[in-house]
Amino acid sequence: MQPITRLNQIPERLKQDAPRRIAVAAAEDANTLGAVVRAVNDGFAEAILIGDRRAIEQTASAAGIHINPAWIVDAGDHACAVACAVQMVRTGKADVLMKGLVNTDLFLKAVLNTETGLLPKGRVMSYVCAVEVPDYPKLMFITDTAVLPFPDLNQKEAMLRYALSMARRFGIAEPKVALISASEKVSPNFPNSIDYALLSKMAERGQFGKCLVDGPLDIFLACDPASAAIKGVPTPIAGQADVLLFPSLEACNAFYKGLMLFAGGELAGMICGPDKPVVVMSRSESENSKYYCIALSCLMADE
Amino acid sequence: MQPITRLNQIPERLKQDAPRRIAVAAAEDANTLGAVVRAVNDGFAEAILIGDRRAIEQTASAAGIHINPAWIVDAGDHACAVACAVQMVRTGKADVLMKGLVNTDLFLKAVLNTETGLLPKGRVMSYVCAVEVPDYPKLMFITDTAVLPFPDLNQKEAMLRYALSMARRFGIAEPKVALISASEKVSPNFPNSIDYALLSKMAERGQFGKCLVDGPLDIFLACDPASAAIKGVPTPIAGQADVLLFPSLEACNAFYKGLMLFAGGELAGMICGPDKPVVVMSRSESENSKYYCIALSCLMADE
């Protein structure tokens, strides 16, 4: 299988298989409906729109979005809609959970509930994004943009596994992982660089399967073959990273938003860790990025 | 005075005044010589090349760079060259200190020496960059890309003052400062956001002079007027930040390197805190960026 190197190749790849069922919690939101209906029309998704039937129908109609009334599951208030959506995914009636017009904290509380939620006890929840910019020849899988503020070693290991799993699902047989810092030096002034040295060694021992993991590396050594050559730092990544693991949410968030704003970037992202993909989109994301988030979660639903 | 909005406007601005004297410590480096000689030829710098005379002359000749033998101060080994360069700046015989082909730690140790160095006791040293990208209508002054790993409140305050001072020197009467986080929420999960709330209030009280300071803000709210409007977050920055203060070196470093690689970025940066500008250039910076670093330090030498 050729690796997927551009986000618009995800829907193509999905068309080979049966559509995935997306349970949208509190679907009365035009943005969300627009992206979901586009995925349905493109043949890789089935919509389960959970929420207030009348509000959903009015929202769709006002936005000129055509929805099938049979897609709607009437569910009263937001708390009910979220509980119902989570339950459908838990019981295999849906393949992907997606947040609609509901408070993110309320939504995640339902996902995280140890009795009725989707995250097995002890499993780390994290966020992985596939980022595309015109000036990089492939996708960058970056983590964590949104969930773990200051990941410890255990959390970094989970982030690494989720990003690897995504890269492999995109057809990359031996993903190259750059553990991002400000320089390539391991130093006690940068505690993350110490975690990175440990993760690199774990990878060398085969603890993450087939992959190349190296860090600390800066963005140039991670993504620019010329810099890697000039600096003479011996690294198997050599400016060709598939995965970029960041030391903090603040660092990862600023990095990807800089690329979205100034480098023509697009992205697809999802929450990893729960038994099935969970999609939480931000209103400030582009229409395309929202659609790609859904496509990504459908691709990952088989994992 | 019209604000400077592009890096190539700095040399123009400098031509109005007498050239600044740049003391280069260990000048036997072709990259450094090339950038300095370009500044001399453009009329805003005078070169003081400190190091091994023969090595400097051979390096220049091999690289096809024309230097005047009278610019050279013969100074034996690197430690001597650094001591001599620092001493010239201390005693007013030079206006700017610049690192040549010498280990950065050795160089900074001389700058930081409390008896013979350039940093007054108790003053914070930090790094400020002016970054230019085609898709932003003005310069972004970002800090700290290189010196302070995890700045505390006191260090953040110093970073803010240095960046403000630079923005004002560029002709911005009321700089807009965005204190960068992953979102606009003040939260104990993000201790930096608490420092930001304090800095915002200090600014409101006039403690930083004429400026607008707000945070936490994410990159979209800081630099994208459209996002600021969509999200409805009340902030005087509203997508038009001049200064971006980052929560950590790792975050700032990854951000600017992403823009250099993928958004056509250029930069000019210098160390702030010492009595006179200190220039430390990285080999991985572009030829233009090196030249702009010198121009920036000349502009800031009058402060």
Features:
homodimer, 303 residues, alpha/beta, Rossmann fold, Isopropylmalate Dehydrogenase, 2 domains, six-stranded mixed beta sheet, five-stranded parallel beta sheet, 11 helices, 11 strands, 40% helix
Can you summarize this structure?
The first copy, chain A, is α/β, with parallel strands linked by helices. Chain A has helices spanning 9-14, 30-41, 53-62, 78-90, 104-112, 153-169, 191-204, 219-223, 225-231, 249-262, 287-300; strands at 20-25, 45-51, 72-74, 96-99, 126-132, 140-143, 176-180, 212-217, 243-245, 266-272, 278-279.
- Total count of domains of chain A: 2
Distance between the termini of chain A: 17 Å
CATH fold assignment of the largest domain in chain A:
Rossmann fold
Strand content of chain A: 15-25%
Beta strand count of chain A: 11
Radius of gyration of chain A: 20 Å
Task: Note the total helix count of chain A.
Answer: 11
- SSE run of chain A: HEHEHEHEHEEHEHEHHEHEEH
Largest interface: A-B, 41 and 41 residues
CATH class of the largest domain in chain A: Alpha Beta
Spans where pLDDT lies below 50 across 5 or more residues of chain A:
none
Strand order of the largest sheet of chain A: 8-7-9-6-5-10
Estimated structural class of chain A: alpha/beta
Shape of chain A: globular
Helical content of chain A (DSSP H or I, runs of 4+):
25-40%
Please outline the major beta sheet of chain A: 6 strands, mixed
CATH architectural label of the largest domain in chain A: 3-Layer(aba) Sandwich
